[in-house]
Each structure stands twice: as structure tokens, then as C-alpha cells.
Amino acid sequence: MPSLNGRIYISYKAIGPKNPFDSLIRDGYRLAYQQHVDVANRIDDSLMITPNGVEGIYFSLGGNTATANQFFLTDSTKHFLRGALYFDATPNADSLGIVNDFLKKDLLHMINTLQWTDRLKPQQP
After folding, report:
1. How confident is the model at residue 2 (pLDDT cuts 50, 70, 90)?
2. Are strands 40-49 and 79-87 parallel, antiparallel or unpaired?
3. In this structure, what are the phi and psi dihedrals at residue 5, rounded to the nearest 5 degrees?
4. Number of domains the chain contains
5. HEC sequence for 39-73
6. Is 91:103 a contact under the CB 8 Å cutoff?
7. Residue range(s) defining the domain that contains residue 22
8. Residue 81 falls within a domain, yes or no?
9. Per-residue pLDDT tens digits for 25-70
10. What is the pTM of this model?
11. Quick check: 71 and 58 in contact, CB under 8 A?
12. Phi/psi zone of residue 53: left (φ > 0), alpha (ψ -120 to 50 degrees), beta?
């Protein structure tokens, strides 16, 4: 994505006493809605359940927002991952719309192929 001046920012939190599940969910919604409600002309959220059993919410934001594509994914017991696609450009829905739509396909592929693992597998030589 460097050629498109875009970046996917991803954060991961292990669910536990320091990061309660309900707090992580609230933060995921807050980051999508509260920070963009003044500039977005629409915010759609969609429940996702991937072929690998990963669940989450995908947010599509319309208008001149800093990020038109955001998501969070979880297994609700151990793992919570949040992502957002940003561009190094002034937010302009007209000029970024085509690129956002193009990269949304890549984001959805990444989301649909995500698998949780609780331990690192040894690398093959």
C-alpha cells in the first residue's frame, strides 16, 4: 500500500483483567463513531463471522473522514484486534473513494483469513 500512500493501523489486546471484553468493544465503537460523527455523512456497521469462526464488526464511513474502513475482530475470550485504513492525504471522499473501495477487498480478505493462535509455531528451516 505504500504506493497508494495508505496504511493499515492494527492494534491487538489480550482480553483479560486489564482489558475487559466489554471495554474493548465500547472502545471499538467509540473510535468509529465518536471521532467521526461530525464529518461522516454515514456510518454503517456490519456483523462479520468469518469462515475461521472469527467474529467482529466492520465499519464503513462515508464522507470526508480520516478513515473510511475500520473493523474489530475477536473470539470474545482471549483475543481482540482492531484495524483502520488511513491515507497520508487530506480526507476527500471524491478522490479517495476508488482507492478505499479497491483496498476494502484486501481488508476483507485479510479479515476472512485471520486465525487465532495461542502459541507461536516453530518456523520451518
Report:
1. very low
2. unpaired
3. 55, 35
4. 1
5. CEEEEEEEEEECCCCCEEEEEEEEECCCCCEEEEE
6. no
7. 2-113
8. yes
9. 999 998 888 766 666 777 889 999 999 999 999 998 887 777 788 9
10. 0.81
11. yes
12. left
